[in-house]
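ping. complex inputs:
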Amino acid sequence: MKFTKLAAALAAAMLFAPHAQAQIEIQWWHSMGGALGEALNEVANKFNAEQKAYKIVTSYKGSYPESMTAAIAAFRAGQAPHILQVFEVGTATMMAAKGAVKPVYQLMKEAGEPFDPNAYLPTVTGYYSDTKGNMLSMPFNSSTALFYIDRNKFKAAGLPPVPPKTWKELVATAEKLKAAGQDCVYTTGWPSWVHVENFSAWHNVPIGTKQNGMGGLDTTFTINSPTHVKHITMLADMAKRGLFTYAGRTNQADAKFQGGECAMATISAGALAGTIKAGKTDWQISFLPYHDDVKGAPQNSVIGGASLWVMSGRKAEEYKGVAKFLSFLSRPEVQSEWHVKTGYVPITKASYEMTRKSGFYDKNPGRDAAVMQLTNKEPTANSKGLRFGNYVQGRTVIEEELEAAFQGKKTAKAALDDAVKRGNEILRQFETANR
Amino acid sequence: MEKRVVFRSAWLPYALVAPQIAITVVFFFWPAIQAVWFSFQLQDAFGLKTQFVGLQNFTNLFRDGNYLASFRVTAVFSVLVAFSGLAISLLLATMADRVLRGALAYKTLLIWPYAVAPAIAGVLWAFLFAPSIGIVTYLLKGFGVEWNWIINDNQALTLVVIASVWKQISYNFLFFLAGLQSIPRSLIEAAAIDGAGPARRFWTIVFPLLSPTTFFLLVVNVVYAFFETFGVIDATTQGGPGQATQILVYKVYHDGVKAADLGSSSAQSVILMFIVIALTVVQFRFIERKVQY
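pong. complex structure:
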């Protein structure tokens, strides 16, 4: 009798308080719009379907800088999300914000989730680890800059449809394409990322002192070295001769190549999905061109894209869910699916192997170019990655100066000297603010 | 002949203006005071560490040649926006004022752009003038004009001026039209009988009588060019190429909102505030004297 009463009471309680056993919600703010956003939601849904204790709630917060700004504002108001997707440029800012973020290695240890930084590609691990090798954020979507050509344009100009390997060959090819009446010969996306950051790593020259800023906040830029000046001089000269069409500071060059306007482009590996979808080019992707007179080139390229940061100030049981989700994310099959669907790099060695064994690369030649280029050689201090404070401003400064050089308003040397000077002031400001 | 209305109640007048004062305090004075306070500080992005740095944010700015250069860009931009905005809308208003049939349709269409958000106006014009796919670019190519504002300073400035002016024309038009309609017909008719042509009638009668409206719009347009155009710029050139379209308010937005550098951004907005206060004082002291009420 007593038992039935109790059971009835219990049943009633459960009926009237359905929230008593509700899932713990985990907020994930991201910047993946369109098809990428759909792929991201699929990942979250899969995790939600697999277990019932936690529920990942995704919210699209606009572009990378916009979601970072939103999260900073939310943090100041005590409303930060659990997980925030931050672009590579914001890495130093997040790392310096001790007290605002919960380092991923620490989170995983506390939650007792297995976590092996060595499972990731070295260029990925290096980018998001502190000097002691502790991974502070979770790599998620990584890309790198690649070289695309449209074979149709080459054939139309009577050239063999083979991508040039060096910049010397590229200039010679560009001249021939131009002479054959090709209007836009070569263009580039993300000028600073491609022609300063990836260029430096690819040629094994430093972007800044202190291991590209990874060794401390008292770093300074070194992008006015003779190698850099030579490269930017060459680009400015190409621009003057109509061999290089400047497209803008972000991904505007993607459309120029995908739409069949330009014959050659250095754009993100992530632009491949769009290139295939547009279907207007006989595309081929290969490694970035290099200068064959620079010793050690080509080295390896650096990543772009974003990683997931865990924000501080949440309860332990919520963090447990976050850790479970991050573990789920690093599973090879999840990674591999994300890679195949989006064109981003498979960031763990296991997921690359898995994708390779599935025969995906045999059926889709070129889709492994990014990972091959990132692992071309064992990364050096110059090619491991970069970490500069307030780099949103720093990159703007570099891009402004590059534009001045491409317009012919300044010599490459003067532009890069000014970029270093102005960039260093930003670094000093960051150093003072984060002392 | 001054009109005076005296309230009998002691508190009623205060109660009536209280909502307006409250809004001004909350949305203007409070943020303005905070901006001044932040401008003396150096903060990391998350507000975890704050240092009082005195005038350092200001001295850093004035040492920076690029910041000083953006004053020049702002001056050129504002003059172009205010002047062409006023001139075009005055022209449109005088035309619309003479329309007899379908006047309402014309007026509605001319007022329409005002309802469009600045960022959307920017995107719209950026599409029309897009270097590779824009329809205007295509037409210009037909005329042999190489149009690429991505890398051409003057073309970039032209684009943001066009987009900003287009956005403001409706507002100006509305006021000019109202001004024109309040000018007594008899004056113009009398001048016409005396043999004054349309141009003479406009410059000697209509324009002087419109001067209060013109003056008001001048102040409003300068403030608009200084403060409200960053949406247009963010949606099109983002200050580039180089720093060709980086006006002061866009740098405030970029440094503060995008780069989370609140100290410098606040210092810039304080400087901007003083410039606009100074400009408004100048306008009221010197230009207003020429206005005939």
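The longest strand of chain B covers residues 41-43.
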